[in-house]
Write a structure and sequence with these properties.
Layout: E1 2-4, H1 7-13, H2 17-28, E2 36-43, E3 52-60, E4 63-69, E5 73-77, E6 80-84, E7 90-92, H3 97-114, E8 122-127, E9 145-146, H4 153-165, H5 179-190, H6 201-207, H7 212-223, E10 226-231, H8 237-250, E11 255-258, H9 265-272, E12 277-279, E13 293-296, E14 302-303, H10 305-314, H11 318-321, E15 323-328, E16 339-340, H12 342-349, E17 353-357, H13 365-375, E18 391-395, H14 401-413, E19 421-425, E20 433-435, E21 438-441, H15 443-446, E22 451-457, H16 465-475, E23 478-487, H17 488-504
Parallel strand pairs: 1-2, 4-8, 8-9, 10-15, 10-17, 11-12, 11-13, 13-15, 14-16, 18-23, 19-21, 19-22, 22-23
Antiparallel strand pairs: 2-3, 3-4, 5-6, 6-7, 20-21
Length: 505
């Protein structure tokens, strides 16, 4: 079963041994291939609490099962319910565990109905993994209280089948939720992307939330064997790829993450560290595999017959029948580091379903506007945060990296951390270096990565496909602020590029 978040994240976040035990067992359940378990779901419209929580929300055979987990002992005495901890101390509960599960289920129903999802079948379940089930009661069905004797993957499978067997049908005239819509909405409500870098302020907080588009893609990845994910720079492709790799690994599949850009290992290695996921650059794939599932980032860099043949060799079942996900930018990044054959791209498109990431979650509105206006590139709708306006600087002489380093020093004086600043020389292909504690890099090595503050130095010498792509990569790395340093000739050439773009629209 797919866990959201992953088992490793649940085991880190949960203080309840009972919740961790149930999560491990749910991970091992594989009878229903469409099943998903969402952990620790906050419910803002709970009937009698301002903010409540469902321990697990499980999609099982088209039914939403809301689970309340109680570790240790649970007892009823003189009409009141108590939990019993490992020291034997009793703690009074505000209501019965079953009532907690039911009220959470109703709160979730109201939230989703407000969002237009429609009526869906739901059940409330209590899980007490440390004790035998309590005596039968008129307050609940015996099938809906799962106890110690059910705590195996096979036992849970049978138990959930029994729970949903008698789930009631929709009342006459009710709008019934489509399961695909329900599944996608649950991913959108409760999936949160991992924090890429501990940054400051509301800009970063908003950028780290999963958007509805990312949630829709995650849902599609869970249900389909071969998927092409299209998204411009900043739409969260790599974030979604990480979550997808975690899901595949949790299901016991062998997983490969590969890419062409030389710096992307810096991004994937820490996010997938400690997991049985192989992170291998495309140039080092010789002798690898085969893998149950292969995820390719920046796939536009590998859109050639030779590259596709190499991928075919590392996918179990081959590209035509195996399980893979390719994430690619429909704009012109391939000209920075890689090759793009349109005929090969058309062939690959015929082998998979396609989904789009359409909301820019990295760049502020001002940055998105610059990219769209100056480069005529689609990097998604600027729907996340306003942020600072783009700062432009004009030099009398040719732009040098030193001009960018001086601006970086001013940012540090204003409170920015040196580690959060990049100077990107759009004319260079050199590997990163450090000048005055600030990273100085090139589009080739910045591609696929991001920084809080980015200072772009100069325009490429020739604004052909390759030069335009380099500038595109440079200006789309910034999360919070973008600074562009140009000489007068650069300004003139950029204005010419804008006029050419307008004429071609």
């Amino acid at each position: 079963m797919i866990l959201v978040p992953s088992l490793a994240d649940i085991e880190t976040a949960s203080r309840s041994q009972a919740e961790r035990t149930l999560a491990r067992l749910l991970r091992d359940v594989d009878t229903d291939g469409d099943a998903v378990a969402f952990y620790s779901v906050g419910l803002r419209s709970h009937a009698y609490k301002q903010q409540a929580e469902a321990d697990f929300v499980i999609l099982w055979r088209g039914v939403v099962v809301v689970v309340e987990v109680k570790g240790g002992g649970v007892r009823k005495h003189d009409g009141s319910w108590y939990s019993v901890d490992r020291r034997g101390d009793w703690h009074k509960l505000g209501t019965s565990p079953m009532e907690q599960a039911r009220s959470a289920a109703y709160a979730l129903r109201e939230i989703l109905r407000e969002q237009g999802v429609g009526w869906y079948r739901h059940e409330a379940v209590v899980v007490t993994p440390d004790i035998e089930a309590p005596p039968s009661s008129v307050d609940w069905k015996s099938t809906h209280w799962l106890a110690r004797d059910t705590m195996t993957a096979a036992g849970l499978t049978s138990a959930f089948d029994a729970v949903v067997a008698d789930a009631r049908r929709a009342p006459h005239g009710e709008k019934v939720a489509r399961m695909d819509d329900l599944r996608t909405r649950l991913f959108g409500e409760f999936t949160r992307m991992p924090v890429v870098d501990a940054q400051r302020g509301a800009v970063i907080e908003e950028q780290n939330r999963a958007t509805a588009g990312q949630a829709r893609v995650l849902a599609a990845l869970a249900r389909n064997k071969r998927v092409l994910v299209y998204g411009g720079a900043g739409t969260g492709k790599s974030l979604v790829l990480v979550e997808a790799a975690k899901q595949e690994e949790e299901l016991g599949r062998s997983v490969l993450v590969t890419f062409r850009s030389p710096s992307l290992s810096q991004y994937f290695a820490p996010h997938l560290g400690g997991r049985t996921v192989d992170v291998i650059s495309f140039d080092e794939l010789e002798g690898s595999g085969p893998y149950d599932v292969v995820l390719v980032d920046e796939a536009q860099d590998m859109m050639t017959a030779e590259a596709m043949d190499r991928l075919d060799a590392v996918i179990d079942g081959g590209r035509a029948s195996g399980r893979w996900r390719m994430f690619l930018d429909p704009n012109n990044q391939a000209h920075v580091d890689g090759e793009y054959d349109a005929d090969v791209a058309e062939l690959i498109t015929d082998e998979a379903i396609t989904v789009d990431l359409s909301l820019n979650v990295r760049n502020t509105r001002a940055i998105v506007h610059v990219v769209q206006e100056y480069l005529n590139a689609d990097v998604g709708d600027p729907g996340v945060v306003h942020g600072e306006r783009v700062q432009w600087y004009t030099t009398e002489e040719a732009v040098t990296v030193s001009d960018g380093v001086k601006i970086a020093a001013d940012l540090v004086a204003d409170g920015a951390r040196r580690a959060d600043i990049w100077v990107v020389d759009s004319r260079s292909v050199a590997a990163p270096t450090t000048v005055g504690g600030v990273v100085v890099t090139s589009p080739r090595f910045a591609k696929g990565l991001e920084a809080e503050h980015v200072i772009v130095c100069g325009l490429p010498d020739v604004l052909d496909a390759s030069g335009t792509a380099a500038f595109y990569v440079a200006v789309t790395r910034a999360r919070v602020s973008l600074h562009v340093v140009l000489c007068k000739d650069d300004r003139h050439r950029l204005q010419t590029l804008v006029r050419q773009g307008v004429a071609s629209r």
